[in-house]
Amino acid sequence: GERKWLRMSGLTLLLPHGHEGQGPEHTSSRLERFLQMCAEDNIQVANCTSPANYFHVLRRQLHRNFRKPLVILTPKSTLRHKNNVSNKDYFINGSTFHRVLRNEITKEKEKKINRIIICSGKLYFELQDHIEQLQKENVFILRLEQIYPFPYDVFSKELKRFIDCELIWCQEEPKNMGAYGFVKRRIESVMKQINMKQEKLLYVGRRAAASPATGVFDRHLANQKNILRLAIEAEKQEILDMWSGVSLVKYQLPIE
To answer: Does the entry feature the keyword Oxidoreductase, yes or no (predicted)?
Structure first.
């Protein structure tokens, strides 16, 4: 509307999105289709993992002196997660929306890190729970809260601390869906700019599929566990061998 008719719009969409075992009709907001339309800062796409960030991204819609449509992905399971909380100070005292979030760590713990996982949305909570369960001190998560406009500057600043680390994009969605196709070349451009040791972004997620999700709950759980295992426990070579993604389909798929 802004490009065609010079009309600003503050339209805000809250779209259910997340692999929670409820079947293909209750899993995907078709994130990839919104991202396909993103250009020239025409819309905003967010996938928040903290109440404070959710508050600020909504507040920002009214506080700014201009308007842009906003698409927010809103999974249901995070409403009940014990770690989906924010300190009250993050709502006040000059706090703002953060396009990328990370947990605070000490300098000593930072030295132990050799793998960075970038993800967006509710998968963060499952990854973090798995890391804590295994007491893995070598894995660190960066959460992409604003997918578009893409935060090149924030990623450049964050990844400079981990130049020699393995870098993984992890998602629940099939490889041909979700944000992977959108963020891959953008993250790799940042990697090249800061001269990271690793040249290509590693992928951990479901294999490309015609349907957003399986309708079989046990298969959903098995795929989800395999994604967590690959991202956190597997060696780099196994991740490379599984470049096409995780799948429990029994028949032989044709080579694309």
So the answer is: yes
pLDDT digits (tens, 9 = 90+) for 129-179: 999 999 999 999 999 999 999 999 999 999 999 999 999 999 999 999 999
What are the boundaries of each domain within the chain? 1-242
Say how many CA atoms lie within 13 Å of 101 toward its Cβ: 23
